[in-house]
Amino acid sequence: xxxxxxxxxxxxxxxxxxxxxxxxxxxxxxxxxxxxxxxxxxxxxxxxxxxxxxxxxxxxxxxxxxxxxxxxxxxxxxxxxxxxxxxxxxxxxxxxxxxxxxxxxxxxxxxxxxxxxxxxxxxxxxxxxxxxxxxxxxxxxxxxxxxxxxxxxxxxxxxxxxxxxxxxxxxxxxxxxxxxxxxxxxxxxxxx
Length: 192
Ligand SMILES: [Zn+2]
What we know:
Layout (H helix, E strand, L loop, with lengths): L13 E2 L2 E2 L3 E2 L5 E3 L8 E7 L10 H6 L11 H4 L8 E3 L5 E3 L5 E3 L6 E2 L2 E2 L5 E7 L8 H17 L8 E3 H4 L13 H9 L1
């Protein structure tokens, strides 16, 4: 069992569209949200670069359009993509913010939720360092929950039922966060 479980419940805070507990590293892959857009959806993803390899600098490089393309053969397939997420939570639970919450990060792509398209307009995207079939770490669950709670405090339209996986807003196209993401456990500790 992780030592993390013995710590007090984490309390995170969002002030001025930043998560205080996150490092900030601004991605160029962002644009303004539509005017007067309410944020009322949170989309959970997973990513690792190269796929299934953890603890590398490449996800951060990718979100900054600075991927060292020679470092892995796979990178030439993705180097021209312009993507980002608001937050990235690594395997140790360390959080990096790439886009302010008031701006639109480029994480969901072609997507819809509850009859509304373009989820990037009204959502916050959180990437967990991981892969669909590899269990996520306890640190990631605890940090994700603290982050979601801080965001729900800041955005009243954001409620537990509006925290979903990328696979739910882009079915048939995306599979993340994947079967290894334990929704039941996540929702249980979110409400605890
Ligand atoms: Zn995704």
